[in-house]
Structure formats: structure tokens, C-alpha cells
Known about the structure:
Two copies of one chain form a homodimer.
Chain A: H1 4-7, H2 15-45, H3 48-79, H4 83-115, H5 125-147, H6 150-180, H7 185-217
Helix pairs in contact in A: 2-3, 2-4, 2-5, 3-4, 4-7, 5-6, 5-7, 6-7
Amino acid sequence: MDNMNLNKHISGQFNAELEGVRNQVMSMGGLVEQQLNDAIDTVHDQNLEIARRVVERDVKVNSLEVSIDEECTRMIAKRQPAASDLRLIIAIIKTIADLERIGDEAKQIAHMVIDNANKTQPPLVSIENMGRNVVKMLHNSLDAFARMDVEAAVKIHESDKRVNREYESVVRELMTFMMEDPRSIPNVLKVLWAARAMERVGDRCKNICEYIIYFVKGKDVRHIGSDNLQSILDE
Amino acid sequence: MDNMNLNKHISGQFNAELEGVRNQVMSMGGLVEQQLNDAIDTVHDQNLEIARRVVERDVKVNSLEVSIDEECTRMIAKRQPAASDLRLIIAIIKTIADLERIGDEAKQIAHMVIDNANKTQPPLVSIENMGRNVVKMLHNSLDAFARMDVEAAVKIHESDKRVNREYESVVRELMTFMMEDPRSIPNVLKVLWAARAMERVGDRCKNICEYIIYFVKGKDVRHIGSDNLQSILDE
């Protein structure tokens, strides 16, 4: 992990505390990535035991969010950070909120697998592929967060367009399936919700990339549109 | 507006600044409520001009989020708040994030109306009713936020169960419609997304209620389950 970029911004005093919290975020990120990965696996192999474990383990994700949040508030009150230290803490508070929601999406995907078990399934290959790409996007986002890598963040942000295109194509495929076999509608709708959950994971990864840029560049780029994002790198 | 409860918690010094930011949150809330209300209106009257205006005006909601967020970070750096002052600022940062997303949901509902214009519609009465209840839930949440009223917050939080029941019933109704007329599936799906957007507004109102409780009681109640929420009042 290359911390060069980061350490520049951290005043000596509470370096260790900040490092500690950053490590907690990475642990939380690792757990959420595993949850999402497991959820996508169950779409493929229909392993209900794993699906149920994803649902149960979401509590752990939630409690990590609460404890990291508390630690951040405590640090603000105690250390009175300013400038980039404060931006890091704010970026962390927002990142864990998105990670927690990604955990929720993973749980929802697992629920779909459990609900649709032993029922006639629509074709699941496209949604599985989409899921793999979304897991990769999350992995890359967490990696960029660990290194506070703005260039990577801009690139990952851009890659959400591909996820959106895949999502549109999954929706069209499932729509055709429903029209050909209307009795399948209730089951296919659940698969559609799962696809939607994956598409939202992409959005949340985009958010995390925006917090990385906020921390490093000191700029809130949330609503400037991804076409203008590239220019941030030149500043 | 009864500020008794709130002023107790604010140390004199930057009372005015905090009041200013709170007022900005209320303006943003008012705008978001209008956006949601207008969006639901267009589901009923299919007024495309209003629907387009909802889509355009979302930019204003976004820029309010960014400027309030900046102001909060500036206050933390300058005023070094602790205890309830800090909790209020954290609660505000989180509340405006949810308000911005409610704005996005309103935009999505308006998009559905625009996309489905002049096409065969499924019955829209139930989704309209659900929409009205969700607008009311948002209105009450903003009201509770203005007064930092914990009792109201717990009650509103509870009322999300009703929204969820309505949502389930809307989904069942639309599913039946699709099964009877499979050619309607593409249009009905858009209506389903709009229903989902409304259901999510309910979730976000719940979040805002949780921040109110966090501010007043100093407790993070995000994942404790609504059945345990009532006991918070007795503490």
C-alpha cells in the first residue's frame, strides 16, 4: 500500500488514529466485497447455505459502519482537524455509508436467490457477468481508496457507464423472457430487482471515487458530470 | 417553529451560524418536498410540462446539497464543535444526502411520466395514493427535523411499514396487469420503478428520523430495528 500521497496530508499528531480508522474502512470494504462476491456466486451455483450466510452476515457490516462512524465523530471532537485531515474524515464517513448500502444490495441479491430457489429461472448468464464486473468495480474502488489514487478513481468512475449498458441489456433480455412466458413474471421480477441492486452498486462505487477526488483535490465533484471529471486530473 | 429543545443544546457562540445552516436545510427540504409533490401530481394529471420542470429543477437540489455540505465542513474546521453541536452538524450532513437522493427519486418518477406519455397505462390509482402518503411522510419528517422532535420521529419511522405494505400491494396489482397483457410489460415496468422510487423515499425519511434521534438522544439507532425504537423515548 503506497501511502506517500496520503501522508503528505496528515499532520503528525493523530496520524496513528487516522491510520487506524483507514484500516477499519479497508476491513469493512473487504467484508462488503466478500459479501457481494458470495452473493453473485450464489446466482451462479444456487448455494442456499451461502446465500443465507450473506443475509446473516449483513449485521456485521452494519455494526462496522456504526463503530467507524462513532470513531470519526470522536476524532473530530477530540482532534479538531482542519484542511485535508478533516476532508479525510468526511470522506470516510461518506464512504462507509455507501459501503453499508452495498452490503444491503448484496443481501438483496442473496434474498432473490433464496426466494427463487427450485423455481423456473430465466437465463442468468448476463446478470452473472454483470455481477462479476460490479464486484471488480468495487474491488478497484477500494484499491483506489487505499492508495487515494485520483487517476484510478476517475477511470473507475467512467467504467460505470459500461455497467449501465450491461444493466439495460439485462433488462431487455428479462423483458423478452417475461413476454414469452407471462407465468414467469413473479420470478423474473425478483431477478430484475437483483440486477437493479447490482446497477446501484456501480453508482455507489462512483460515489466512493468522488470522495477520493474530494479528499485529494479538495473539490466536490458529485454533480459535475463524468465528462468534466477528466479535467480534474490536469488541475 | 419551536426551538426550545434545540437552543438548549447550542453553545452561544455560533448559534447564528448553526441557525443559518438549519434554515438552508429547511429550504432544501421545502424544495425537495415540492419536487416530490409535483412528480406525484404528474402521475395523476400527466402534465408533461411540470414533469420536465421536475427533471430540470433537480440541478438546484444538487447544488444546495453541495453548498450546505461545504458550509458544514467549514464550520467544523472553524468552530471546532463538540457534543451536541457536532452531532447537529453531522446530522445535517447526513440529512442533506438523503434529501438529495429523494430529489433523485422525484426526478425518476417524472421521467417515468415523460417516457410513458401517450402509451397504454396500467391502473395508476394505487401508486398515486402511495405517492401521496410518501409526500406526507416527507413533510412530517421535515417538520420533525425543524423541531428536532424525537417522539414525532419515532412515529414517522413506524409509519414506513404502511408505505411498504402499500408498495407490496402496488407490485401485486401491476404484476397481475402484466400477466393479463404481456405487451404492456415495458410500460408497466417503468411504473414499477416509480413505485420502487416512492418506497425508497419512505426509507430515506426513516433515515432522517434516525438522525433526529441521533442528535437529540446522542444515540445511533440505525440498525436496531423499529420495534426497539419506542424504548428510546423512555430513556
